[in-house]
Write a structure and sequence with these properties.
Helix content is about 40%, strand content about 15%. The protein is α/β, with parallel strands linked by helices. The chain folds into 2 domains: about 110 residues, no CATH class; about 200 residues, Ribonuclease Z/Hydroxyacylglutathione hydrolase-like (Metallo-beta-lactamase, Chain A), CATH 3.60.15. Helix 7 runs antiparallel to helix 8. The radius of gyration is 23 Å and the shape is elongated.
Length: about 350
């Protein structure tokens, strides 16, 4: 943890003062706190609106039960309630469901029934075991002989810690599995970009469709802490893995936009820019820490350490917002958390 500490370094108090004031001069709200009061210093009104190019891609509800459904390739359907995403493919043997979020699990089944009447639902493939993406499995639990496909590590976690609505897997696999269901090829490969046990990339080669949930948000900066990843370095490395696939459609599990290859490239460039920016600022960590110690007269090292961390985090956030605010929506909302996530990793490694 103290890789960057060198208490023999002595820095000027002037540097401390300029670092503390530089952020205030930007006039930005870096999302440390948000108030719904219009005149509050941290008012939500101080954040940038979503970008027009992002809004132009937003899906719209096109059913009377609150879902958007679109056929993105023949017999492959994209589904979203504008917050969560899922998909299903109609095969010659039946319907294969790819994730069942609880927010629309019941209506997902209704959508399948309307889209493919009299076609049985035969499989539910889970991208990972988190309830927010598969707790809607409960609405499929009464289907006879339904196969629930999941990675072995996910099955082990669910056996120890069952989650409401998440069905018990009936088919488990190790690192990879290839399925052909009703003439549709489906490739499953484990990875470690988000979940605490394992994630599964779901790839349909003929449809050029790749599903990797809780990774990016197309048109937007990623959610807090890079999609709340439990493995920061693996998250950074995952983009090259995704780009090795031949895909046109990228389902990431959140917001209403179905992504594409360029969205993955843009998200990669953003994430690496955050990481590189943090590492570029780390050379000043010792000076900031020493100045913090001086300010508290060497009586509270934790406070001084936090000052150094926050200074680098906030300097990083300003730089990232400046470079990306016209490229991705909500950068000013999440950049501070991305910088902090990369910073904590840098400090500990």
């Amino acid at each position: 943890m103290h890789k960057f500490l060198n208490l023999t370094i002595v820095a000027s108090v002037a540097m401390f003062a300029s670092s503390a004031s530089s952020l205030a001069e930007t006039g930005r709200n870096l999302a440390n706190t948000i108030s719904l009061e219009a005149n509050h210093v941290d008012s939500f009104r101080n954040f940038a609106p979503e970008l027009p190019q992002m809004r132009a891609r937003v899906a719209t509800i096109n059913t009377d039960f609150g879902l958007h459904i679109s056929e993105i390739e023949p017999r492959l359907f994209f589904v979203t309630d504008l917050v969560y995403q899922s998909a299903f493919v109609v095969t010659d043997d039946g319907v294969v469901v790819l994730d069942a979020p609880p927010s629309f699990g019941e209506n997902l089944r209704k959508a399948i029934t309307i889209t493919a009447p009299d076609v049985p639902i035969t499989h539910l493939i889970m991208s990972h075991g988190h309830r927010d993406h598969n707790g809607g499995g409960q609405f499929f639990a009464d289907i006879p002989d339904l196969e629930i496909v999941a990675a072995a590590e996910v099955a082990e976690t669910l056996e120890k810690f069952p989650l409401e609505g998440v069905l018990t897997p009936t088919q488990v696999f190790g690192s990879a599995r290839e399925l052909t269901i009703g003439g549709v090829d489906i490739q499953l490969q484990t990875a470690n970009f988000h979940a605490e046990d394992t994630d599964v990339m779901i790839y349909l080669p003929d449809q050029k469709f790749l599903m990797a949930v809780d990774t990016i948000t197309p048109g937007e900066a990623p959610f807090m802490n890079f999609g709340a990843t439990t493995n920061v370095n693996a998250y950074f490395e995952s983009f090259e893995t995704f780009l090795e696939y031949d895909f046109q459609h990228f389902l990431s599990g959140h917001v209403s936009i179905l992504g594409n290859r360029q969205d993955v490239v843009t998200a990669r460039d953003y994430a690496l820019d955050v990481r590189n920016t943090v590492y570029g600022l780390m050379s000043g960590f010792n000076d900031l820490f020493i100045n913090g110690l001086k300010a508290v007269e060497f009586q509270n090292a934790n406070l001084a350490y936090r000052f150094a961390m926050e200074s680098i985090r906030d300097d990083c956030a300003v730089k990232i917002i400046d470079r990306w605010e016209n490229e991705l929506s909500v950068v000013d909302l999440w950049a501070d958390s991305h910088c902090e996530t990369a910073l904590l990793y840098a400090v500990m490694h």
